[in-house]
Write a structure and sequence with these properties.
Layout lengths: L1 H6 L6 E6 L2 E6 L3 E7 L2 E6 L4 E4 L3 H7 L5 E3 L4 E4 L3 E6 L5 E5 L7 E3 L1 H14 L1
């Protein structure tokens, strides 16, 4: 049993987030996006709530299942289930429209569009 565990990567399944004087467990399944704003990293949930976390995006990205999450740009990691539609934008970029409101537009750079499409099509 332990040998099987060592072969399978351990991706983060949940987060403990602070809200006032409580710690709230949040399942990774509830996370629609993770973004940075003014140096603070936030989890954006299905219900539209957002919570700050004490981690940076690079560390979080390493802990998430790459089949379920994609690093859209320097500010955003998005969940596959959060994507409502994609719009082709000028200069070959993609504009992502999520199922929840985000504080700013999420663009995939021209250089990352093909990787994003492969990710989305391969695991969708």
């Amino acid at each position: 049993m332990q040998a099987v565990r060592m072969d399978k990567p351990n991706f983060r399944l949940s987060f403990l987030v602070r809200f006032q004087d409580r710690l709230i467990p949040v399942s990774a399944d509830e996370v629609m996006a993770i973004y940075i704003d003014n140096g603070i990293v936030y989890l954006l949930l299905q219900n539209g709530k957002q919570y700050p976390v004490d981690m940076n995006l690079d560390d979080i990205q390493q802990q998430l299942d790459p089949i379920r999450f994609f690093r859209a740009n320097r500010q955003f990691i998005v969940s596959r289930m959060s994507i409502h539609e994609m719009a082709v934008h000028f200069n070959g970029r993609l504009l992502l429209n999520l199922k929840v409101h985000t504080p700013e537009a999420i663009y995939i750079s021209k250089e990352r569009v093909s990787a994003f499409k492969r990710w989305f099509e391969a695991f969708n």
